[in-house]
Request: fold
Amino acid sequence: MSLTANLSKVPQFKEIVAAIAPKKKDFKTASGKNPFSKEYETLVPYTLENPSDASLIGTAFDYLARFRIAQIINLEMSFKELVAYNGLKKLQKFTGDNSLEDKYYSTIQKDIDTFIKGEQSLNNEVCVTALKLANLERYSRANILAGVSETDIFDIQRKDTLTNELNGLMNTFEEKFIGSGFIKTDSKVVFNPHFGIASLLVDGADADILVDDVLYDFKVVKDVGYKSADVLQLTGYFLLNKLLKEIEINYGVSESLPFDDIEFSKICLYKARFGECEYFDFKDINEQDIRAALIRLAEYFLNNPDKTVKYTMLKAHPGYDLEEYDDALRSIVDSN
Reply:
């Protein structure tokens, strides 16, 4: 099960994460306004008539924001490293059209490179490319194998409305996020950071973006209220990263497994329609409480193993020793 599914369907898992999750009153905002409040000003009104377009806009905005950040830090981005690329491979496989990658790969990569390397300003062409990537990513993550066509992915419907929304969101992002100095030319940035073994235990969890010591989650929502599900997800990432460090570094298990060597204590929700950043620093929580939650999480994975996930993990990484992993978890539990 994914991290989201664990949080929504497994009470024990949710309780462990909730034990250190910040409450509404614990957050602060970059603007100084009360977090999650009606003090926020709507800078990009919601104009979408088709409900399904909301998630499409959210994912497309994520891509455009990443492109703009990559432009600032002078970072090349490969289409093959994006989740959307998995969608293209999946579409090619299940439509049986083996020409799709040849047809679309170079064009999409060129559009990405032209924007990032050319230091161009945002334009509708880049917005349409982001929408195509968003369609591919949604398809990649969906439990759908057949019934989706090339046209469904690459023929963008309601193009004018969608590109207008994206332009508004990115103009606000430029002013409120980029303009506030959250991204510097020498910032350490990790797109879609994941947490090695710990991520695999929740079916490959990956977050939005890490900038220096802050884990950001970009939200294109039309309401400003506090949502515990969003906060629990970010807290879950924080705990998974803590667990990874314990296993990979302190116990030296499966050091060859790929993971992003990251450290962070701060989480932040960026509300794109309002240009507001709501943040919390886990350094404000008692270290003993965090340690207790970490031990409980290790115990949960040790005593409630998901056989399917473990099998998949072993199959993908044949050099991985499951017994060593269990010993590492047991050592964490026994350290209590």
Notes: Residues 1-24+185-264+281-336 form one domain. The chain has two domains: 1-24+185-264+281-336, 46-179. The CA atoms of residues 49 and 161 lie 9 Å apart. The mean pLDDT is 89.
